[in-house]
Write a structure and sequence with these properties.
Radius of gyration: 15 Å
Distance between the termini: 23 Å
Strand order of the largest sheet: 1-2-3-4
Number of helices: 3
Oligomer: single chain
Largest sheet: 4 strands, mixed
Number of strands: 4
């Protein structure tokens, strides 16, 4: 996204950032960080790239974490594990998929389609697993 101005909005789903952003960050384009609510991706977590990148993003931004999630929660892995009865994260696979879809869709609906998304304004009683951070 930093290298290609054609990308209008971006989401990092539980991944580390690969090096610092260039001067000017993302040029004011919106960005959401969605990760595990553990010692890794909370503010002050062991993945220090999130803390280092946050102030350089500029523009609209959100830092969200999901309780009971693990690194693969934001992929198809919870569905596959659940289908075969294999152990997965504390967050049930159906809930993991629902939360990921809900927040990612809300983000892109807001920033690519111009649709109001109050869900992104702060914590929701309907989604108590999701924490909003403003380091």
């Amino acid at each position: 996204m930093a290298a290609d101005r054609r990308i209008d909005a971006g989401v990092d789903m539980d991944g580390a950032f690969r090096g610092p952003l260039p001067p000017g960050g993302l040029g004011g384009r919106p960005f959401m960080m969605l990760g595990t609510d553990d010692e890794v991706h909370r503010p002050g977590g062991t993945d220090t790239t999130w803390d280092a990148t946050w102030p350089t993003l500029g523009g609209w931004k959100r830092w969200l974490t999901v309780a009971g999630a693990n690194h693969f929660t934001f992929s198809d892995r919870p569905v596959i594990l659940g289908r075969f009865g294999l152990p997965g994260p504390a967050l049930p696979s159906g809930r993991a998929v629902a939360l990921t879809r809900t927040y990612v869709a809300a983000f892109f609906d807001r920033h690519l389609r111009g649709l109001p998304q109050p869900l992104l304004d702060g914590p929701s009683a309907a989604h108590p697993e999701v924490a909003f951070h403003t380091p």
